[in-house]
Specification:
Length: about 180
C-alpha cells in the first residue's frame, strides 16, 4: 500500500488516470467520471497568527471583515465561494497548496487563510482559529473510485476497514465534524 498526502484535485486526477484505485478527498468536479461516497463534513474556519486584530471581534467572522487583510488562497478554500468569500479568493495574490506551508506562512504573518476545521484541529502553535458565520459551506470528504473499474480485493478491504473505523470512532476527536456514513 502506498499512502500519499496531497490536495483533492491531485487525488481526483490520480484515481481518474488509474494511478491509484481509491482516494480520500473532497468532492470531485462535476465533469469527472469518479464515484464519490461522502464520509464526513467539517466547517471552514479562519486561521490567523496569534495576536491578530480579528481576534478582538466577539462574533463569527464574515467575508467583509477580511477585506483589509492579506488573504492566502488554497485549494480547499476555493469551495467557499458564497457570501463574498469568492471575492477574497480572486483578489488573493498568493495560492498555496500545501497545508503545512500555508500554516507556516500564516504563522509568520504573511497573511490569513480559511481551511476546513479538521485541517487545523488542535490549534497549531502560533496560530489561532476563528469560527466563520454559519452561512459558509462545509467541506465534504469522501472516498473516490473509478466506478467503471472493479476494485482489487486489497483496495476494497482498505475501503471497508476505513469506513468501519470511522463509524466505530464517530470522529469523536473533532466536535465540528459531521459523520455522513
Amino acid at each position: 500500500m502506498d499512502v500519499r498526502d496531497t490536495d483533492s484535485v491531485a487525488v481526483e486526477t490520480a484515481v481518474e488516470h488509474g494511478t491509484c484505485e481509491i482516494g480520500i478527498a473532497g468532492a470531485p468536479s462535476e465533469r469527472s467520471a469518479i464515484e464519490f461516497q461522502p464520509i464526513f463534513s467539517d466547517p471552514f474556519v479562519l486561521v490567523v497568527p496569534k495576536g491578530h486584530p480579528l481576534l478582538k471581534l466577539k462574533r463569527p467572522i464574515r467575508a467583509v471583515d477580511l477585506t483589509e487583510y492579506s488573504f492566502i488562497s488554497n485549494g480547499a478554500a476555493h469551495s467557499v465561494i458564497n457570501d463574498g468569500f469568492g471575492d477574497l479568493m480572486e483578489q488573493s495574490k498568493l495560492m498555496v497548496h500545501s497545508v503545512t506551508s500555508l500554516l507556516s506562512l500564516v504563522k509568520s504573518g504573511t497573511g490569513i487563510t480559511i481551511l476546513p476545521a479538521l485541517s487545523v484541529s488542535g490549534s497549531p502553535e502560533g496560530l489561532e482559529i476563528i469560527h466563520l458565520e454559519k452561512k459558509v459551506p462545509q467541506r465534504v470528504v469522501g472516498l473516490l473510485s473509478l466506478g467503471s473499474r472493479a476494485m482489487t480485493p486489497a483496495a476494497a478491504s482498505f475501503r471497508d476497514f476505513f469506513v468501519a473505523t470511522l463509524r466505530s470512532r464517530k470522529l469523536r476527536a473533532a466536535k465540528e465534524i459531521k459523520l455522513l456514513i
